[in-house]
Automatic annotation (TrEMBL):
UniProt keyword terms in alphabetical order: Metal-binding, Oxidoreductase, Zinc
Signal peptide feature range: none
Stated family: Belongs to the zinc-containing alcohol dehydrogenase family.
Cofactors demanded by this protein: Zn(2+)
Record domain Enoyl reductase (ER): where: 8-346
Alphabetical list of SUPFAM superfamilies matching this protein: GroES-like, NAD(P)-binding Rossmann-fold domains
Source organism: Virgibacillus siamensis
A Pfam family that the UniProt record links to this protein: ADH_zinc_N
Name of the protein described by the UniProt record: Galactitol-1-phosphate 5-dehydrogenase
Length: 351
């Protein structure tokens, strides 16, 4: 079986492995991977952190076809089109007992301590399998997991129809946040980035106003657009130490800031930005993972629902469709900024 295995920092290898998954538990489901995407967290682990387990098969955003199911699996059979929720929770800690599954003390995903989806086949428990309606193709379904991450964060806010939202950072999470803000009823969505290509895609997927903050501060431009008031909800999706400080100035008095990006570095907040938390009485929200009770959660149902109805456009976000064997080179190119990359999908069937 062909797989991408992570051995160390910037040491990703395309290998033929004998570790093809087999049914071990009565609720196991084996899926033939049709499409699998690169997540921003994959890039951070590749570039900065290294694997949890040396040589682990990487990847967790995927879609595919069921090839085999354990004897206690009902409602699934070989040939079914599916996606997968890649997350495992313990079910025993205090958070799990309260139904707050995303706060599980032992939360983990495939590709970390369990073999992931950068492979020809992947295995998950039946409760992690997401059946696909006919309207959702494999490319779109590979984006269900990142979409669920975004809507998990949006559910944490109190955004109401007619409200205003600013999305800081127009990578894949930011572009999905633009769309979910519209689905939640936002009247005006501002998309902020320093890359005109990303801002163009943001406008294509629904942003009303795009702001390039490379020339003038995002704060100055947004205040000019809002009469000095700011917006109801700010989404930090860039995962940058700089933007993680700046977002506090974009919310209106009594507004909300929700963090979806992970900076992987210290965040130094200048007095001007920090005082906005206090003087504007902001609500600051963290958002982690994409699951809730009952597992996997309403995030997944909502995503499939809106994808099936064409209300989530992920096709315009996909810039590369590649052979899985190209993985090591592509990861290297992305982290070294050798080319322009949006969402990258691999197709294990290509060999």
């Amino acid at each position: 079986m062909r797989a991408l295995n992570l051995y160390g920092i910037q040491d990703l290898r395309s290998e033929d492995t004998s570790r093809e998954p087999v049914i071990e538990n009565p609720d196991d489901v084996i899926v033939k991977v049709k499409a699998v995407g690169i997540c921003g967290s994959d890039l951070s682990r590749y570039k900065k952190l290294g694997p949890y387990v040396e040589g682990m098969t990487f990847g967790h955003e995927f879609s595919g076809v069921v090839v085999e199911a354990g004897p206690e699996v009902g409602g699934l059979q070989a040939g079914d089109r599916v996606a997968g929720c890649p997350t495992f929770y313990c079910g025993k800690c205090e958070s799990c007992r309260k139904g707050e599954l995303s706060r599980c003390e032992k939360l983990t995903v495939i590709g970390a301590r369990h073999p992931g989806a950068y492979a020809e086949y992947v295995k998950l428990p039946a409760e992690n399998i997401i059946p696909l309606p006919d309207e959702v193709d494999f490319d779109t379904a590979a984006m269900i997991e990142p979409s669920a991450v975004v809507v998990h964060g949006m559910y944490r806010t109190s955004l109401q129809p007619g409200g205003s939202v600013a999305v800081m950072g127009c990578g894949n999470i930011g572009l999905l946040a633009v769309q979910w803000a519209k689905i939640f009823g936002a009247e005006t969505v501002f998309a902020i980035d320093i890359d005109d290509d990303k801002l163009g895609t943001a406008r294509e997927v629904g942003a009303d106003v795009v702001i390039n903050s490379s020339g003038a501060p995002a704060y100055d431009q947004l205040m000019g657009c809002t009469g000095g008031k700011g917006v109801d909800v700010v989404v930090e999706s860039a995962g940058s130490p700089v933007t993680s400080a700046q977002v506090f100035a974009l919310a209106k008095k009594g507004g909300e800031v929700v963090f979806m990006g992970i900076p992987y570095a210290d965040v130094n907040i200048g007095r001007f930005y920090f005082e906005k938390i206090v003087r504007s009485e902001l609500t600051v929200l963290g958002s982690w993972n994409a699951i809730s009770a009952p597992f996997p959660g309403k995030e997944w149902d909502a995503t499939v629902h809106h994808m099936a109805r064409g209300q989530l456009d992920v096709k315009s976000m996909i810039t590369h469709r590649l052979n899985l064997r190209e993985g090591p080179d592509v990861f290297d190119r992305i982290v070294n900024r050798d080319g322009s990359f949006g969402k990258v999908l691999f197709y294990p069937e290509l060999g």
